[in-house]
Design brief:
Pfam families: CitMHS_2
Shape: globular
Number of domains: 1
Strand content: under 5%
Number of strands: 2
Radius of gyration: 21 Å
Keywords: Membrane, Transmembrane, Transmembrane helix
InterPro entries: CitMHS_2
Structural class: mainly alpha
Protein name: Sodium:proton antiporter
């Protein structure tokens, strides 16, 4: 279908990205209402959906497939959001550079095993509470998005949606552990840069009210409330793993709907078994996940023509080396959802290797030799790591931003955030290119 789709059909997608970037600057009060975001999404996505139906069965099948991916995506993010929102980390943590760095490091370490969304929702609120007496907090949230919401999830298919989709397409579960050198390099550099940055910021505000011992609230012992939600969190991990391994289905991935139903049941179980008082302590609200749901349904629909064109013309892009796949995947993952972008370039690489795109084709692709492993490593790193380049590169980015703003943290605009990523992340990715992909 990609050869038949008009390139003009990508305009609504570009306009949606422009709206996400521009409206917070032009009219922030109007844009903060999710109903208004929904109006923009509807105006831009409904014509695309109608246009796709003109391609008959092929267009309807593409819309259905994208709709199913959206539901799976939203249920995964939503279940982790709700379950993590029922876990309250109590205690008095001082927002010093050392404590903040330890929290970021811990979140990065667990992100590959509970998902970047789970780790983000579990730790963003304790981090914000620890820094409630500080005035310079924006950079801390930005680095949190870089590390906990993105690069921390590089080690397992449970960490980030692109790797999970690769797992469903045949990549062995343990294969992503080979990416530990890239994971260690990028996160170690980020942690060192953050610590030095936060040291400077902390010294500049150490004399302000709220940072003296007299103004601090009474000390509270560290502890965890909502322990039962850890079981629900492990349940989500178990469902994702079992689905991908095809447990109970002869090794084949579960039919669509089973995994989604189980995630929904775990979400509902957590919500109704957790007291409202506990969620109140966590300042839990559905605003962030509603914002993600509204914006990403528009992204999933309007990006269909762009992905179709890319998929059909992938062999004409001239991609042959690891660094080219790393940057091509990364750049598109910054503005498209990184999960379908991963699949697009993985399918392109498999097609060039004459591997048919049927069943667990990525397992067959890897069996073609060491070059396939190197190319898939580059695609994986590009999708996961460069999803941090913009707010829309990965689902948790928007959620963390929304939670921070609910806590009166002034977050940078769309382009302001890209200034951070351009200054901090792009030099790291250039270094990674020379170390790992050339």
């Amino acid at each position: 279908m990609g050869k038949l789709v008009s390139k003009f059909s990508t305009v609504p997608f570009a306009l949606l990205l422009l709206s996400i970037a521009a409206f917070p600057l032009i009219n922030p009060h109007w844009w903060e209402h999710n109903s208004n975001k929904g109006i923009v999404v509807a105006i831009l996505s409904i014509p695309v959906a109608i246009y796709l139906t003109t391609f008959g069965e092929a267009g309807l099948h593409t819309l259905e497939h994208s709709g199913k991916e959206y539901v799976s995506f939203l249920l995964l993010l939503g279940s982790l959001f709700v379950i993590s929102g029922g876990i309250y980390v109590r205690g008095s943590l001082a927002g010093t550079p050392v404590v903040n760095s330890l929290l970021l490091g811990f979140g990065t370490a667990i992100a590959s095993f509970v998902g970047t969304t789970g780790a983000s929702m579990l730790l963003i609120r304790p981090l914000l509470r620890a820094n409630s007496s500080r005035t310079r907090v924006t950079h801390t949230v930005v680095f949190f998005i870089f590390m906990v919401s993105n690069s921390g999830g590089l080690l397992t298919p449970l960490g980030d949606p692109p790797l999970f989709l690769g797992f469903l397409k045949g990549v062995p579960f343990e294969w992503t552990f080979r990416l530990w050198p890239q994971w260690l390099m990028v996160n170690l550099i980020l942690l060192v840069v953050y610590f030095l940055w936060d040291q400077i910021a902390f010294r500049k505000e150490s004399h302000l009210p709220g940072t003296t011992s007299e103004s601090q609230p009474p000390k509270e012992a560290l502890g965890l409330e909502g322990w039962h939600n850890l079981a629900f969190l492990l349940g989500i991990v178990a469902v994702i793993y079992a689905s991908g391994q095809g447990l109970g289905n002869g090794g084949e991935a579960w039919p669509w709907g089973i995994q989604e139903l189980l995630m929904l049941l775990l979400l509902l179980g957590s919500y109704f078994m957790t007291s409202s008082a506990l969620r109140t302590k966590n300042h839990f609200g559905f605003g962030p996940i509603i914002e993600v749901a509204v914006l990403f349904i528009g992204i999933f629909i309007t990006m269909i023509p762009a992905l179709a064109i890319l998929n059909s013309e992938g062999k004409n892009l001239g991609l042959s080396t690891e660094w080219q796949y790393f940057w091509a995947t990364g750049i598109l993952s910054s503005f498209l959802d990184n999960a379908p972008t991963y699949l697009t370039f993985a399918a392109t690489a498999a097609g060039i290797a004459n591997v048919p795109l049927e069943g667990p084709y990525l397992r067959l692709f890897l069996e073609t030799g060491p070059e396939a492993h190197a190319i898939l490593a580059a695609i994986s790193c590009g999708a996961v790591l460069m999803g941090a380049n913009t707010y829309i590169g990965n689902g948790p980015n928007f959620m963390v931003k929304a939670i921070a703003e609910e806590n009166n943290i002034r977050m940078p605009s769309f382009f302001g955030y890209m200034a951070y990523s351009g200054l901090i992340l792009l030099p790291i990715f250039v270094l990674m290119t020379f170390v790992f992909f050339i």
